[in-house]
Design goal:
The complex is a heterodimer of chains A (about 100) and B (about 325). Chain A is an alpha+beta fold. Chain A has 2 helices and 3 strands, in the order ββαβα. Chain A has a domain of about 70 residues: Phenylacetic acid degradation B (Ubiquitin-like (UB roll)), CATH 3.10.20. Classes of the chains: A alpha+beta (about 100), B mainly alpha (about 325).
Protein backbone atom coordinates (compact mmCIF):
# COMPACT_ATOMS: atom_id res chain seq x y z
CA UNK A 1 0.00 0.00 0.00
CA UNK A 2 3.01 2.18 -0.34
CA UNK A 3 2.33 3.01 -3.91
CA UNK A 4 1.86 6.66 -4.49
CA UNK A 5 0.08 6.94 -7.81
CA UNK A 6 -2.29 4.72 -9.69
CA UNK A 7 -3.85 1.46 -8.65
CA UNK A 8 -1.69 -0.36 -11.16
CA UNK A 9 1.53 0.40 -9.32
CA UNK A 10 1.77 -2.83 -7.44
CA UNK A 11 4.65 -2.80 -5.03
CA UNK A 12 3.91 -6.05 -3.23
CA UNK A 13 4.08 -4.01 -0.07
CA UNK A 14 0.83 -3.98 1.85
CA UNK A 15 1.27 -2.50 5.29
CA UNK A 16 1.91 -5.20 7.90
CA UNK A 17 -1.04 -7.20 9.16
CA UNK A 18 -1.98 -6.97 12.84
CA UNK A 19 -4.27 -9.30 14.77
CA UNK A 20 -6.79 -7.46 16.92
CA UNK A 21 -7.92 -8.62 20.37
CA UNK A 22 -10.77 -6.88 22.19
CA UNK A 23 -11.59 -6.95 25.90
CA UNK A 24 -15.35 -6.52 25.86
CA UNK A 25 -15.53 -5.41 29.50
CA UNK A 26 -13.43 -5.31 32.63
CA UNK A 27 -12.91 -8.74 34.12
CA UNK A 28 -13.00 -10.59 30.79
CA UNK A 29 -10.03 -11.70 28.71
CA UNK A 30 -9.08 -10.12 25.38
CA UNK A 31 -10.57 -12.11 22.55
CA UNK A 32 -9.57 -12.28 18.89
CA UNK A 33 -11.81 -10.04 16.76
CA UNK A 34 -10.06 -9.88 13.38
CA UNK A 35 -7.17 -8.12 11.73
CA UNK A 36 -6.13 -4.78 10.23
CA UNK A 37 -3.32 -3.49 8.05
CA UNK A 38 -1.36 -0.59 9.54
CA UNK A 39 2.02 1.09 9.20
CA UNK A 40 2.77 0.77 12.91
CA UNK A 41 1.27 -0.31 16.22
CA UNK A 42 -0.34 3.02 17.06
CA UNK A 43 -2.05 3.22 13.69
CA UNK A 44 -3.14 -0.40 14.13
CA UNK A 45 -4.83 0.52 17.44
CA UNK A 46 -6.65 3.41 15.76
CA UNK A 47 -7.73 1.27 12.81
CA UNK A 48 -8.84 -1.51 15.17
CA UNK A 49 -10.91 1.01 17.15
CA UNK A 50 -12.74 2.13 13.99
CA UNK A 51 -13.10 -1.36 12.55
CA UNK A 52 -13.98 -3.52 15.54
CA UNK A 53 -15.45 -1.27 18.26
CA UNK A 54 -18.01 0.98 16.55
CA UNK A 55 -20.71 -0.20 18.95
CA UNK A 56 -18.97 -0.16 22.32
CA UNK A 57 -17.73 -3.73 21.83
CA UNK A 58 -14.65 -3.08 23.90
CA UNK A 59 -12.87 -1.27 26.72
CA UNK A 60 -9.36 -2.34 25.74
CA UNK A 61 -7.51 -3.40 22.59
CA UNK A 62 -4.41 -5.45 21.85
CA UNK A 63 -2.77 -5.47 18.44
CA UNK A 64 -0.12 -8.07 17.67
CA UNK A 65 1.88 -8.36 14.44
CA UNK A 66 0.33 -11.36 12.70
CA UNK A 67 3.81 -12.57 11.80
CA UNK A 68 4.64 -12.85 15.53
CA UNK A 69 2.01 -15.53 16.14
CA UNK A 70 3.11 -19.16 16.13
CA UNK A 71 0.20 -21.52 15.59
CA UNK A 72 -0.02 -25.25 16.13
CA UNK A 73 -0.18 -27.39 13.01
CA UNK A 74 -3.67 -28.80 12.33
CA UNK A 75 -1.95 -31.89 10.89
CA UNK A 76 -0.48 -32.54 14.34
CA UNK A 77 -3.71 -31.95 16.21
CA UNK A 78 -4.12 -35.63 17.03
CA UNK A 79 -0.62 -35.97 18.45
CA UNK A 80 -1.05 -32.76 20.43
CA UNK A 81 -4.49 -33.21 21.89
CA UNK A 82 -5.28 -36.91 21.95
CA UNK A 83 -3.15 -37.73 25.00
CA UNK A 84 -5.77 -35.83 27.03
CA UNK A 85 -8.61 -37.97 25.71
CA UNK A 86 -7.97 -41.07 27.85
CA UNK A 87 -7.45 -39.19 31.12
CA UNK A 88 -11.02 -39.01 32.29
CA UNK A 89 -9.74 -39.15 35.87
CA UNK A 90 -8.88 -35.45 35.42
CA UNK A 91 -12.59 -34.66 35.53
CA UNK A 92 -14.54 -34.46 38.79
CA UNK A 93 -17.34 -36.67 37.44
CA UNK A 94 -14.88 -39.61 37.34
CA UNK A 95 -15.25 -39.96 41.12
CA UNK A 96 -18.35 -41.43 42.76
CA UNK A 97 -19.14 -39.67 46.01
CA UNK A 98 -22.15 -40.75 48.12
CA UNK A 99 -25.11 -38.36 47.93
CA UNK A 100 -24.99 -38.05 51.71
CA UNK A 101 -21.71 -36.18 51.40
CA UNK A 102 -22.67 -32.62 50.60
CA UNK A 103 -20.86 -29.69 49.07
CA UNK A 104 -18.17 -31.56 47.19
CA UNK B 1 -24.71 -5.63 1.64
CA UNK B 2 -23.53 -8.59 -0.33
CA UNK B 3 -22.90 -10.26 -3.58
CA UNK B 4 -23.73 -13.67 -4.82
CA UNK B 5 -20.94 -15.36 -6.69
CA UNK B 6 -20.89 -13.73 -10.11
CA UNK B 7 -19.83 -15.10 -13.44
CA UNK B 8 -18.91 -12.93 -16.40
CA UNK B 9 -21.60 -14.38 -18.65
CA UNK B 10 -24.51 -16.79 -18.39
CA UNK B 11 -23.60 -20.43 -18.39
CA UNK B 12 -19.90 -19.68 -18.22
CA UNK B 13 -18.08 -22.69 -16.85
CA UNK B 14 -15.04 -20.81 -15.59
CA UNK B 15 -16.23 -20.88 -12.00
CA UNK B 16 -14.39 -23.91 -10.77
CA UNK B 17 -11.63 -24.59 -13.26
CA UNK B 18 -10.06 -27.97 -13.50
CA UNK B 19 -6.84 -28.16 -11.54
CA UNK B 20 -4.24 -30.78 -10.78
CA UNK B 21 -5.91 -33.79 -9.17
CA UNK B 22 -6.03 -33.58 -5.40
CA UNK B 23 -4.70 -36.25 -3.05
CA UNK B 24 -7.76 -38.58 -2.84
CA UNK B 25 -7.17 -39.44 0.83
CA UNK B 26 -6.94 -35.80 1.88
CA UNK B 27 -9.89 -34.89 -0.33
CA UNK B 28 -12.07 -37.63 1.20
CA UNK B 29 -11.13 -36.50 4.72
CA UNK B 30 -11.94 -32.89 3.80
CA UNK B 31 -15.30 -33.80 2.28
CA UNK B 32 -16.19 -35.86 5.35
CA UNK B 33 -15.37 -32.95 7.66
CA UNK B 34 -17.49 -30.55 5.60
CA UNK B 35 -20.35 -33.06 5.41
CA UNK B 36 -20.23 -33.34 9.22
CA UNK B 37 -20.69 -29.53 9.44
CA UNK B 38 -17.19 -28.96 10.77
CA UNK B 39 -15.62 -25.58 10.06
CA UNK B 40 -12.52 -25.40 7.88
CA UNK B 41 -9.84 -23.05 9.27
CA UNK B 42 -7.02 -21.23 7.44
CA UNK B 43 -4.23 -23.70 8.17
CA UNK B 44 -6.33 -26.79 7.41
CA UNK B 45 -5.77 -28.70 4.19
CA UNK B 46 -8.37 -27.77 1.55
CA UNK B 47 -8.78 -28.51 -2.17
CA UNK B 48 -7.45 -25.76 -4.42
CA UNK B 49 -10.87 -25.32 -6.05
CA UNK B 50 -12.41 -24.71 -2.62
CA UNK B 51 -9.76 -22.09 -1.87
CA UNK B 52 -10.21 -20.40 -5.25
CA UNK B 53 -14.00 -20.36 -5.01
CA UNK B 54 -13.81 -18.81 -1.56
CA UNK B 55 -11.25 -16.19 -2.54
CA UNK B 56 -13.44 -15.15 -5.45
CA UNK B 57 -16.68 -15.14 -3.47
CA UNK B 58 -15.29 -13.40 -0.36
CA UNK B 59 -13.38 -10.78 -2.36
CA UNK B 60 -16.45 -10.06 -4.52
CA UNK B 61 -18.41 -9.73 -1.31
CA UNK B 62 -15.80 -7.32 0.09
CA UNK B 63 -15.77 -5.26 -3.12
CA UNK B 64 -19.57 -5.04 -2.94
CA UNK B 65 -19.40 -3.58 0.55
CA UNK B 66 -16.83 -1.00 -0.52
CA UNK B 67 -18.59 0.01 -3.76
CA UNK B 68 -21.86 -0.09 -1.81
CA UNK B 69 -20.69 2.97 0.11
CA UNK B 70 -20.96 5.09 -3.05
CA UNK B 71 -24.69 5.19 -3.90
CA UNK B 72 -25.55 6.10 -0.32
CA UNK B 73 -22.56 8.36 0.25
CA UNK B 74 -24.03 10.38 -2.59
CA UNK B 75 -26.81 11.54 -0.23
CA UNK B 76 -24.91 12.27 3.00
CA UNK B 77 -24.60 15.99 2.28
CA UNK B 78 -28.27 16.18 1.28
CA UNK B 79 -29.88 14.26 4.14
CA UNK B 80 -32.95 16.25 5.23
CA UNK B 81 -32.24 16.27 8.97
CA UNK B 82 -29.25 15.95 11.28
CA UNK B 83 -30.69 12.66 12.59
CA UNK B 84 -30.91 11.18 9.11
CA UNK B 85 -27.43 12.43 8.29
CA UNK B 86 -25.92 10.83 11.41
CA UNK B 87 -27.72 7.55 10.65
CA UNK B 88 -26.57 7.52 7.03
CA UNK B 89 -22.98 8.32 7.98
CA UNK B 90 -22.99 5.46 10.49
CA UNK B 91 -24.44 3.08 7.92
CA UNK B 92 -21.93 4.00 5.23
CA UNK B 93 -19.11 3.63 7.76
CA UNK B 94 -20.45 0.17 8.63
CA UNK B 95 -20.31 -0.84 4.96
CA UNK B 96 -16.65 0.17 4.89
CA UNK B 97 -16.08 -1.91 8.02
CA UNK B 98 -17.83 -4.90 6.45
CA UNK B 99 -15.53 -4.63 3.44
CA UNK B 100 -12.53 -4.72 5.78
CA UNK B 101 -13.76 -7.79 7.71
CA UNK B 102 -14.21 -9.58 4.40
CA UNK B 103 -10.87 -8.57 2.87
CA UNK B 104 -9.24 -9.91 6.05
CA UNK B 105 -11.15 -13.19 5.71
CA UNK B 106 -9.99 -13.54 2.08
CA UNK B 107 -6.42 -12.78 3.14
CA UNK B 108 -6.43 -15.84 5.42
CA UNK B 109 -6.65 -17.87 2.18
CA UNK B 110 -3.48 -16.32 0.76
CA UNK B 111 -4.95 -13.47 -1.29
CA UNK B 112 -3.21 -10.13 -0.70
CA UNK B 113 -5.10 -6.92 0.00
CA UNK B 114 -3.15 -5.14 -2.70
CA UNK B 115 -4.05 -7.73 -5.36
CA UNK B 116 -7.72 -7.61 -4.43
CA UNK B 117 -7.88 -3.81 -4.52
CA UNK B 118 -6.02 -3.83 -7.81
CA UNK B 119 -8.43 -6.40 -9.28
CA UNK B 120 -11.35 -4.15 -8.33
CA UNK B 121 -9.82 -0.94 -9.65
CA UNK B 122 -8.65 -2.48 -12.90
CA UNK B 123 -12.15 -3.83 -13.57
CA UNK B 124 -11.16 -7.53 -13.38
CA UNK B 125 -13.16 -8.19 -10.23
CA UNK B 126 -16.94 -8.34 -10.00
CA UNK B 127 -19.14 -6.82 -7.34
CA UNK B 128 -22.88 -6.90 -6.74
CA UNK B 129 -24.92 -5.64 -9.69
CA UNK B 130 -27.13 -3.62 -7.36
CA UNK B 131 -24.56 -0.86 -6.87
CA UNK B 132 -24.56 0.04 -10.53
CA UNK B 133 -27.97 1.69 -10.24
CA UNK B 134 -28.24 5.41 -9.42
CA UNK B 135 -29.79 6.90 -6.25
CA UNK B 136 -32.12 9.52 -7.71
CA UNK B 137 -34.28 10.71 -4.85
CA UNK B 138 -34.08 10.71 -1.06
CA UNK B 139 -36.52 7.79 -0.80
CA UNK B 140 -33.88 5.69 -2.60
CA UNK B 141 -31.92 5.74 0.66
CA UNK B 142 -34.92 4.20 2.40
CA UNK B 143 -35.45 1.68 -0.39
CA UNK B 144 -31.79 0.61 -0.28
CA UNK B 145 -31.88 -0.02 3.46
CA UNK B 146 -35.19 -1.84 3.29
CA UNK B 147 -34.71 -3.86 0.07
CA UNK B 148 -31.00 -4.05 -0.67
CA UNK B 149 -29.91 -4.62 2.90
CA UNK B 150 -32.96 -6.83 3.38
CA UNK B 151 -31.88 -9.01 0.46
CA UNK B 152 -28.31 -8.99 1.78
CA UNK B 153 -29.48 -10.16 5.20
CA UNK B 154 -31.36 -13.10 3.64
CA UNK B 155 -28.14 -14.29 2.07
CA UNK B 156 -25.82 -13.41 4.91
CA UNK B 157 -27.87 -15.09 7.61
CA UNK B 158 -27.46 -18.33 5.63
CA UNK B 159 -23.72 -17.64 5.21
CA UNK B 160 -23.20 -17.50 8.98
CA UNK B 161 -23.06 -21.30 8.67
CA UNK B 162 -20.74 -21.34 5.67
CA UNK B 163 -18.02 -23.98 6.02
CA UNK B 164 -15.01 -21.62 6.06
CA UNK B 165 -14.52 -20.36 9.63
CA UNK B 166 -13.17 -16.83 9.00
CA UNK B 167 -15.95 -16.13 6.45
CA UNK B 168 -18.61 -17.44 8.83
CA UNK B 169 -17.27 -15.30 11.69
CA UNK B 170 -17.23 -12.19 9.49
CA UNK B 171 -20.85 -12.95 8.57
CA UNK B 172 -21.92 -13.20 12.21
CA UNK B 173 -20.49 -9.76 12.91
CA UNK B 174 -21.96 -8.30 9.73
CA UNK B 175 -25.44 -9.72 10.36
CA UNK B 176 -25.52 -8.11 13.82
CA UNK B 177 -24.86 -4.75 12.19
CA UNK B 178 -27.09 -5.13 9.12
CA UNK B 179 -30.27 -5.28 11.15
CA UNK B 180 -29.97 -1.58 11.92
CA UNK B 181 -29.42 -0.89 8.23
CA UNK B 182 -32.67 -2.50 7.19
CA UNK B 183 -34.71 -1.02 10.02
CA UNK B 184 -33.54 2.54 9.40
CA UNK B 185 -34.44 2.11 5.72
CA UNK B 186 -37.93 0.85 6.44
CA UNK B 187 -38.47 3.60 9.00
CA UNK B 188 -37.45 6.16 6.37
CA UNK B 189 -39.92 4.63 3.88
CA UNK B 190 -42.62 4.71 6.55
CA UNK B 191 -41.97 8.40 7.22
CA UNK B 192 -42.22 9.19 3.50
CA UNK B 193 -45.39 7.10 3.08
CA UNK B 194 -47.01 8.86 6.02
CA UNK B 195 -45.89 12.25 4.68
CA UNK B 196 -47.23 14.39 1.84
CA UNK B 197 -48.64 12.95 -1.38
CA UNK B 198 -45.43 14.01 -3.12
CA UNK B 199 -43.30 12.17 -0.54
CA UNK B 200 -45.39 9.05 -0.95
CA UNK B 201 -45.00 9.31 -4.72
CA UNK B 202 -41.21 9.47 -4.25
CA UNK B 203 -41.36 6.33 -2.08
CA UNK B 204 -43.34 4.48 -4.76
CA UNK B 205 -40.90 5.67 -7.42
CA UNK B 206 -37.98 4.32 -5.37
CA UNK B 207 -39.71 0.95 -4.90
CA UNK B 208 -40.44 0.81 -8.64
CA UNK B 209 -36.77 1.25 -9.49
CA UNK B 210 -35.21 -0.90 -6.73
CA UNK B 211 -37.57 -3.90 -6.63
CA UNK B 212 -36.28 -5.84 -9.63
CA UNK B 213 -32.59 -5.05 -9.12
CA UNK B 214 -33.02 -6.27 -5.52
CA UNK B 215 -34.39 -9.61 -6.74
CA UNK B 216 -31.44 -9.86 -9.14
CA UNK B 217 -29.05 -9.60 -6.18
CA UNK B 218 -29.70 -13.28 -5.45
CA UNK B 219 -28.03 -14.17 -8.73
CA UNK B 220 -29.07 -16.36 -11.66
CA UNK B 221 -31.83 -18.93 -11.40
CA UNK B 222 -30.72 -22.27 -9.96
CA UNK B 223 -30.95 -23.97 -13.37
CA UNK B 224 -28.47 -21.41 -14.71
CA UNK B 225 -26.05 -21.26 -11.79
CA UNK B 226 -23.31 -23.73 -12.72
CA UNK B 227 -21.29 -23.55 -9.51
CA UNK B 228 -24.14 -23.73 -7.04
CA UNK B 229 -24.20 -27.51 -6.69
CA UNK B 230 -20.48 -27.72 -5.88
CA UNK B 231 -20.68 -24.72 -3.52
CA UNK B 232 -23.60 -26.28 -1.72
CA UNK B 233 -21.85 -29.64 -1.48
CA UNK B 234 -18.84 -27.91 0.10
CA UNK B 235 -21.25 -25.90 2.26
CA UNK B 236 -19.82 -22.63 1.05
CA UNK B 237 -23.39 -21.78 0.14
CA UNK B 238 -26.08 -23.18 2.39
CA UNK B 239 -29.12 -22.34 0.29
CA UNK B 240 -29.71 -21.82 -3.41
CA UNK B 241 -30.28 -18.50 -5.15
CA UNK B 242 -33.94 -19.28 -5.82
CA UNK B 243 -34.64 -20.44 -2.26
CA UNK B 244 -33.23 -17.21 -0.84
CA UNK B 245 -34.99 -15.05 -3.43
CA UNK B 246 -38.33 -16.70 -2.64
CA UNK B 247 -37.88 -16.13 1.07
CA UNK B 248 -37.08 -12.47 0.45
CA UNK B 249 -40.19 -11.99 -1.69
CA UNK B 250 -42.38 -13.74 0.89
CA UNK B 251 -41.31 -11.50 3.77
CA UNK B 252 -41.04 -8.27 1.77
CA UNK B 253 -44.40 -8.15 -0.02
CA UNK B 254 -46.40 -7.76 3.22
CA UNK B 255 -43.97 -5.01 4.28
CA UNK B 256 -44.74 -3.14 1.04
CA UNK B 257 -48.46 -3.60 1.68
CA UNK B 258 -48.06 -2.12 5.16
CA UNK B 259 -46.46 0.94 3.60
CA UNK B 260 -49.39 1.22 1.18
CA UNK B 261 -47.05 0.82 -1.79
CA UNK B 262 -47.50 -1.34 -4.88
CA UNK B 263 -44.85 -3.87 -5.83
CA UNK B 264 -44.11 -3.22 -9.54
CA UNK B 265 -44.88 -6.76 -10.70
CA UNK B 266 -48.33 -7.38 -12.26
CA UNK B 267 -47.70 -11.14 -12.06
CA UNK B 268 -47.08 -11.08 -8.31
CA UNK B 269 -49.64 -13.38 -6.70
CA UNK B 270 -49.95 -15.46 -3.54
CA UNK B 271 -49.90 -19.13 -4.44
CA UNK B 272 -51.98 -20.92 -1.85
CA UNK B 273 -50.85 -24.38 -2.96
CA UNK B 274 -47.12 -23.58 -2.73
CA UNK B 275 -47.48 -21.35 0.30
CA UNK B 276 -45.34 -18.75 -1.48
CA UNK B 277 -45.70 -15.74 -3.74
CA UNK B 278 -45.32 -16.32 -7.47
CA UNK B 279 -43.44 -13.57 -9.28
CA UNK B 280 -43.07 -12.47 -12.86
CA UNK B 281 -39.99 -13.18 -14.97
CA UNK B 282 -36.82 -11.29 -14.03
CA UNK B 283 -35.15 -9.41 -16.90
CA UNK B 284 -32.03 -11.57 -17.10
CA UNK B 285 -30.73 -9.64 -20.09
CA UNK B 286 -30.49 -6.59 -17.85
CA UNK B 287 -28.83 -8.64 -15.12
CA UNK B 288 -26.09 -10.00 -17.38
CA UNK B 289 -25.56 -6.60 -18.98
CA UNK B 290 -24.87 -5.15 -15.53
CA UNK B 291 -22.59 -8.09 -14.66
CA UNK B 292 -20.64 -7.32 -17.85
CA UNK B 293 -20.12 -3.77 -16.59
CA UNK B 294 -22.85 -2.08 -18.60
CA UNK B 295 -24.81 -0.86 -15.58
CA UNK B 296 -26.06 2.71 -15.52
CA UNK B 297 -23.35 3.87 -13.14
CA UNK B 298 -20.65 1.20 -13.61
CA UNK B 299 -18.04 3.58 -15.03
CA UNK B 300 -18.84 6.28 -12.51
CA UNK B 301 -18.49 3.84 -9.58
CA UNK B 302 -15.07 2.62 -10.67
CA UNK B 303 -13.89 6.14 -11.38
CA UNK B 304 -14.98 7.18 -7.88
CA UNK B 305 -13.07 4.24 -6.37
CA UNK B 306 -9.89 4.90 -8.35
CA UNK B 307 -10.02 8.63 -7.64
CA UNK B 308 -10.45 7.95 -3.92
CA UNK B 309 -7.48 5.57 -4.00
CA UNK B 310 -5.25 7.94 -5.97
CA UNK B 311 -6.24 11.04 -4.04
CA UNK B 312 -5.63 9.18 -0.79
CA UNK B 313 -2.07 8.28 -1.80
CA UNK B 314 -0.57 11.26 0.05
CA UNK B 315 -2.39 10.17 3.24
CA UNK B 316 -0.92 6.67 2.99
CA UNK B 317 2.52 8.12 2.28
CA UNK B 318 2.25 10.51 5.21
CA UNK B 319 1.16 7.72 7.56
CA UNK B 320 4.09 5.60 6.41
CA UNK B 321 6.56 8.48 6.85
CA UNK B 322 5.16 9.23 10.30
CA UNK B 323 5.47 5.57 11.34
CA UNK B 324 9.08 5.51 10.14
CA UNK B 325 9.88 8.74 11.99
CA UNK B 326 8.46 7.36 15.22
CA UNK B 327 10.44 4.17 14.73
CA UNK B 328 13.68 6.13 14.26
CA UNK B 329 12.98 8.21 17.36
CA UNK B 330 12.25 5.11 19.40
CA UNK B 331 15.51 3.56 18.20
CA UNK B 332 17.55 6.71 18.95
Amino acid sequence: MNDNSSSNDKTGADWPLWEVFVRSKGGLAHRHAGSVHAADARMAIEAARDTYTRRMEGVSLWVVPSAAITASDPGEAAALFEPAADKVYRHPTFYAIPDAVKHM
Amino acid sequence: MYTTELQSAPGQKAGIPASAPEDPVKLAAFEARVAADEFIEPKDWMPEAYRRTLVRQISQHAHSEIVGMLPEGNWITRAPTLRRKAVLLAKVQDEGGHGLYLYSAAETLGASREEMIDALHSGRAKYSTIFNYPTLNWADIGAIGWLVDGAAIMNQVALQRTSYGPYARAMVRICKEESFHQRQGYELMLAMCNGTAEQKRMAQDALNRWWWPSLMMFGPRDDNSPNSAQSIRWRIKRETNDQLRQRFVDVTVPQAEYLGLTVPDPALKWNEARGHYDIGEIDWEEFYAVVRGEGMTSLERMKARRDAWDEGAWVRDAAQAHAEKRQRRAAA
